[in-house]
Automatic annotation (TrEMBL):
Entry annotated with the keyword Protein biosynthesis: yes
Pfam family, one: tRNA_SAD
Residues covered by the TGS domain: 54-117
Protein name: TGS domain-containing protein
PANTHER family: THREONINE--TRNA LIGASE, THREONINE-TRNA LIGASE
Keywords on record: Protein biosynthesis
GO BP field: threonyl-tRNA aminoacylation
Amino acid sequence: MLVSVFGRRRVCQAAVRGSRSYGKLYPSACQTERLRIFQSLRDRHASGAAEEQEASRRDLSIRLADGRTVKGSAGVTSLLQIAKSERVKGAVAGRVNGALWDLSRPLLEDCELQLLGFDSLEGRQVVWRTGACVLASVMENLFSARVCREGVSDTGLYCDYQLQNNAPSLLDVEQSCKQMAAEKTPVIKLEVTVQDLKELFQDDAVRLRLAEEQMMGDTLSVYRCGDTVGVCSGVLLPHTGFLKAFKLLQVTLTL
């Protein structure tokens, strides 16, 4: 499946910076600390999840959209594993008993499963949302941007950020995004509390305020893509290699 990602970038301030290849910058001190906190939260979540999965591990019956039933193991079998075993090409997400799930998420109980591709509205949103994570990572790590917010619109993806220097060209950013996508960089997602958010973004009041505004309940999803930790509001792809094409369309300057 050819996945096309279209984006718009909003520049809050500006600067001169030459063309670079992705992956040559080291994380800043703030990024390093944020990555440490993210990993600590991830380890804590993984420990609790492992105990729950071990306690509930059992055989599952999974009914597919075409009426067939396949077997799985609770806490082990993921949507991606089913897509591979059933040779379903182009799956980017799934509906489990009607709820939208990440491909990498393991099933916990008997269910009805519908795998979704880019030809569905939900699938496009998942692809674009992951593309926004890639764009945010590229802007932060290559061009030293201060990312404020990333996400999806009705027609593609966007990333709001601030720069101290002139904005890089669309071509430079687009090529860097394509390179990161080709590296199949893992996209890791966590559910965090308000207190976790405050710890993660303690050095960025704008990012924290915008993240808190997105919270609809007790938790919010954050992600790690490369050396960037950001906020997401939905399902993501397991890694950037699912993005087969990347096209940036415009820059909007905000003073």
